[in-house]
Predict the structure.
Amino acid sequence: MNEVSRTLFIPLYGKTQVSEKGIILNDPMAERIWKAEAFPIHGKSKWLAYNMAMRARVFDDWTEAMLRANPDALVLHIGCGLDSRCLRVKKTYTNWIDADFPEVLSLRKKYYEENDAYHMMAIDASKAEQIAGLPDSETAIVVLEGISMYLTNAQVRCMLRAIEKKYPQLHILMDVYTEFGAKASRYKNPVNDVGVTELYGIDDIKALLDDTRIKLKAEHSFTPDRLINELKPFERVFFRTMFAEKIYRRIYRLYELELLA
C-alpha cells in the first residue's frame, strides 16, 4: 500500500474515536477495523478526530439528502478507503460503487461484502479511461472526500471532465485544500506520518470548472453548529476558536457541484 493509500487510516482513527464516545457519528465498522488494523499515527488528537468525524457526517447527511431527491441515482464514492458510508446512510439505494486503488480494496474486502446494490471497483481517479469504465446511470451522486489534495489541479480537472462525460446529471460534494492550506500542511499534518510529501490546493474552483458544464452550487461548512454542540462545553468553546469558519476557510473548503441535464 503506497503513502497516499495509507492516509485512509487517519479518518478511520477519527471516526473510531467519536463512535466510541457516542457523539457525531455512529460507526461500529470503523471501530472494528481500527481494532484489527490500527496504524501508528503520531499526530493524532481528539481535535483531529472531531474534524474527521464532522467531515464524514456532513458528507453522510448530504449523500442521504441527495438519495432522497434522486432515489434511482448511482452513488459513486471515489477514494472510499475503509469508510462505511454505504452502511451509515440509512436511505435505501439501488446502486452504490465504492472505488479505490486495488490494494485498498484488497484490504476493504476483508470487512465488506458486495451484494446486488453494493459493489467495489478498483480505479485510479486520475485515469479518465478508468472512470469511463464505471457503470452507466442517468444520475450520479459523486462523493469526493479527502481525494482532491492528492491530485494536481490538472488531474482534478481531468477527473471531473471524465465524470461529466460519463453521467448526464451529477451531484458532487468535494473537499479541497486552498493553496495556503496545502503549503501549511507540509509542516503539520497527520498525512506526513504515512509518508505523503506533496499536497495540492485549489484557490479558484470556478476557474477549475471553466471548461466543463459542471457548476458550483454551494459551499458548505465542515463544522456546523449542530455537530459542534455534541461536544462538551469547554470543547465547544475551544473548537469554535480554533476551527471557526473564517479561519478554517483559509485552509480548507467544501464545495457542492452539479450538472443538470
